[in-house]
């Protein structure tokens, strides 16, 4: 009998999927914000030419710094069940000239911040990204500069109150676009 109970519990955990949180921008900007060196506040919305459907975009005004997409509240709270799952999104930019490197993704929980640099910048067409929410990725503890541990990643996911995705990749005027953000996606 004990073996049946153990098998039933194991089956439940392996077959039950925690729903992911997503923004597809098919109807509006879904309360995403732009923060930093751009038209801070609500992003611009386009109801077509997304991948598919609508998308959001922002224009860089070149006043210094880097601008980011800032996720709405529906992405926050205890997201520890997402450990080992994925964050995926699509980006595009208006120019490939004068590219620069910077932190691409920032996860924030209280005083702790984890950063990730992507392997490549987006192109002129929709570029898809999928990063693991685990130490298999090159997540860094912003404070120490060291590679993030499993416990640090779990701590941030448990108390998540900030998700930032870089929108600016060009030194100078440009437009950055975002579509199809999924947080907690299964492989």
Description:
With 187 residues, the protein is mainly beta. The chain has a single domain, classed as Jelly Rolls, CATH 2.60.120.430. Helix content is 12%, strand content 32%. The strands form two sheets. Strands 1, 3, 4, 6, 9 and 12 form a six-stranded antiparallel beta sheet that branches. About 6% of the residues have low confidence.
CATH superfamily: Galactose-binding lectin
> Would you state the CATH class?
Mainly Beta
What's the story with the biggest beta sheet? 6 strands, antiparallel
Distance between the termini: 33 Å
Structural domain tally: 1
Task: Please state roughly what percent of the residues sit in beta strands, choosing from under 5%, 5-15%, 15-25%, 25-35%, 35-45% or over 45%.
Answer: 25-35%
In CATH, the architecture is: Sandwich
Shape designation: globular
- What is the percent of helical residues? 10-25%
Mean pLDDT: 88
Class by helix and strand content? mainly beta
Rg, Å, rounded: 18 Å
Number of helices, where a helix is a run of at least 4 consecutive DSSP H or I residues = 2
Q: Return residue spans where pLDDT drops below 50 for at least 5 consecutive residues.
A: 5-16
CATH fold-level label: Jelly Rolls
Helices and strands, in order, run as HEEEEEEEEEEHEE
């Amino acid at each position: 009998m004990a073996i049946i109970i153990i098998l039933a519990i194991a089956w439940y955990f392996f077959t039950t999927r925690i729903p992911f949180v997503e923004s597809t921008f098919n109807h509006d900007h879904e309360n995403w914000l732009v923060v930093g060196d751009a038209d801070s506040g609500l992003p611009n919305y386009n109801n077509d030419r997304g991948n598919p459907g609508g998308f959001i975009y922002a224009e860089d005004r070149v006043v210094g710094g880097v601008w980011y997409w800032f996720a709405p509240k529906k992405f926050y709270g205890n997201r520890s069940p997402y450990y080992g799952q994925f964050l995926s999104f699509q980006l595009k930019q208006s120019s490939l000239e004068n590219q620069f490197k910077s932190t691409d993704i920032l996860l924030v929980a209280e005083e702790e911040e984890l950063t990730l640099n992507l392997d490549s910048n987006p192109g002129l067409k929709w570029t898809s990204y999928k990063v693991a929410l685990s130490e298999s990725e090159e997540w860094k503890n912003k404070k120490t500069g060291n590679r993030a541990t499993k416990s640090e990643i779990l701590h941030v996911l448990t108390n998540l109150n900030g998700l930032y995705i870089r929108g600016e990749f060009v030194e100078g005027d440009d437009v950055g676009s975002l579509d199809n953000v999924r947080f907690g996606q299964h492989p």
